Amino acid sequence: MEVKIKDLHPTQLYLSEKKLQDIQMLYQSVENPNINPISVLAIGDRLLITDGQHRAYQALLAGRTTISAEWDKDGGDELYHLYAQVCEERKIYSVLDLKNHILAQDEYEAKWYNWCDGFNQAAKQLLGVKKDAKDYSDR
């Protein structure tokens, strides 16, 4: 399915400069790049990005208004809802709002993965999720 990029809500606080450069090179290498669909989850009237924040951001920079998406069937709906709430608390409401949150790869890994580890542990306790529940920070 095709979704409007402006209608997507991020669930990630930062973007990796390196990942964006890699996707940008793919966009520049061919006229119609074969980009994997992003994964989305509908919560209320919002469409949350569960995988593909970088692809959505780069598509927007490339002048696209829509992007190919598929429904996320991996679970973790409650956790992604919490991620989206944290993004909104930090004034990240859309993919474009991530423009001031692009970090060098080492800083991205340190900040994002460390934040996710702590947040996921707290969320699992809050949500009563099993300790062996899937970690979504790498998406």
TrEMBL record:
<dbReference type="InterPro" id="IPR036086">
    <property type="entry name" value="ParB/Sulfiredoxin_sf"/>
</dbReference>
<protein>
    <submittedName>
        <fullName>Chromosome partitioning protein ParB</fullName>
    </submittedName>
</protein>
